[in-house]
């Protein structure tokens, strides 16, 4: 198999994630620690120098099948390390030698055993895949799952939240709006995921943000947001992108437009829908064309309601507020990743 990947990439991964390196070497990760990488020696650069229990392990990495010259190379590193030990420049511990290659024969293994060299066969694609899986576990934002709740415009929350603020129950709101209980429940679910509503012992109530949202509304606008309401919500989404599935998915649709705009601008609706469904990992959930178009329609509406995007005809345009939101998303994503790695 041909690999279009540099050794440095795999070296970076093995240096950053000792669980993967330990698995390849067959070691307990708890007892393995990295001492140095790309260590300059007289005979060249040693890829990795590790400590396992009370033993030094020198690791030479190759993204290639075994070849005989590796034996000479790693033995040269071994002699260099011994020389450093003699001059008290390296801890005086036993040294083991390990070679990481993509394939080898039984003859190669036998030759290496004669030189006290351990041969470890690995697959670069598995290293890359495992690193991403481990990265996902660390990265909170990648665990957020997108979803839609059947509320096609954020302005539809207006009357429901106004009635909730007036002390009406969910059943009373359903009767007042002449809407089903399911419709009202969906609206309250969306409002809760936008920080407008909270729930206590089965009862919904407006949050401080929700009260400001209601006060900023205009009954004459029916199912549309006022500029003040749009600003309130857009600021909340920008400042709390990972608050919920809805906040993150709104920004995911915005990011879809931002990404596609690099090759073609403005971005047409069909291209956006196709890319969006893939980008949020919903190809298996939103399987039918109708489900995909509905989800893209809903979240594009939300992004437009918050003035992150403008839609003219069948094309999307980025707004200044949308560009600012993308930049903040990238910053918040980096901060969240750093925080998760430090936990």
Describe the structure.
This protein has 343 residues and is of the alpha+beta class. It has two domains: 7-138, Trna Endonuclease, Chain: A, domain 1 (3-Layer(aba) Sandwich); 143-229 and 240-341, Orthogonal Bundle (Arc Repressor Mutant, subunit A), CATH 1.10.10. 52% of the residues lie in helices and 16% in strands. The chain is built from 15 helices and ten strands. The strands form three sheets. It has a five-stranded mixed sheet with strand order 1-2-3-4-5, with helices on both faces. The chain has a three-stranded antiparallel sheet with strand order 8-10-9. Helix 12 (245-260) crosses helix 13 (269-279). The longest helix has 22 residues, at 320-341. The two termini are 38 Å apart.
Question: How would you summarize this macromolecular structure in one to three sentences?
Answer:
The protein has 343 residues and is of the alpha+beta class. It has helices at 7-16, 18-25, 69-86, 106-114, 124-138, 140-143, 157-165, 170-177, 181-192, 208-215, 227-239, 245-260, 269-279, 289-305, 320-341, and strands at 32-41, 44-52, 55-61, 95-101, 117-121, 197-200, 203-206, 267-268, 309-312, 315-318. The chain has a 5-stranded mixed sheet with strand order 1-2-3-4-5, with helices on both faces. A 3-stranded antiparallel sheet has the order 8-10-9. The chain has a two-stranded antiparallel ribbon with strand order 6-7.
């Amino acid at each position: 198999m041909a690999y279009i990947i540099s050794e440095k990439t795999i070296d970076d991964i093995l240096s950053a994630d000792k669980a993967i390196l330990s698995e390849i070497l067959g070691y307990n990760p708890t007892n393995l620690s990295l001492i140095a990488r790309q260590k300059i020696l007289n005979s060249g650069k040693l890829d990795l120098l590790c400590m396992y229990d009370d033993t030094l392990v020198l690791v030479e990495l190759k993204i290639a099948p075994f070849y005989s010259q590796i034996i000479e190379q790693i033995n040269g590193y071994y002699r260099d390390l011994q020389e450093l030990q003699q001059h008290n420049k390296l801890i005086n511990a036993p040294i083991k030698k390990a070679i990481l290659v993509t394939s080898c024969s039984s003859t190669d293994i036998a030759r290496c055993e004669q030189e006290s060299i351990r041969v470890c066969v690995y697959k670069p694609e598995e290293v890359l895949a495992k690193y991403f899986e481990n990265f996902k576990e660390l990265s909170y934002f990648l665990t957020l799952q997108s979803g839609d709740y059947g509320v096609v415009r954020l302005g539809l929350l207006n009357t429901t939240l106004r009635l909730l603020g007036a002390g009406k129950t969910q059943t009373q709101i359903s009767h007042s709006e002449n809407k089903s209980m399911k419709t009202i429940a969906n609206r309250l679910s969306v409002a809760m995921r936008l920080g407008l509503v909270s729930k206590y012992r089965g009862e919904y109530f407006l949050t401080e943000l929700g009260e400001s949202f209601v006060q900023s509304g205009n009954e004459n606008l029916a199912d549309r947001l006022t500029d003040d309401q749009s600003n309130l919500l857009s600021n909340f989404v920008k400042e709390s992108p990972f608050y919920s599935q809805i906040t993150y998915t709104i920004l995911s649709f915005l990011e879809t437009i931002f990404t596609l705009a690099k090759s073609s601008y403005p971005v047409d609706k069909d291209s956006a829908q196709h890319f969006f469904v893939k980008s949020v990992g919903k190809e298996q959930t939103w399987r039918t064309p109708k489900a995909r178009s509905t989800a893209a329609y809903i979240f594009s509406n939300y992004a437009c309601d918050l003035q992150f995007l403008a839609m003219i005809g069948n094309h999307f345009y980025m707004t200044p507020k949308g560009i600012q939101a993308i930049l903040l998303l990238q910053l918040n994503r980096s901060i969240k990743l750093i925080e998760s790695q430090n936990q």
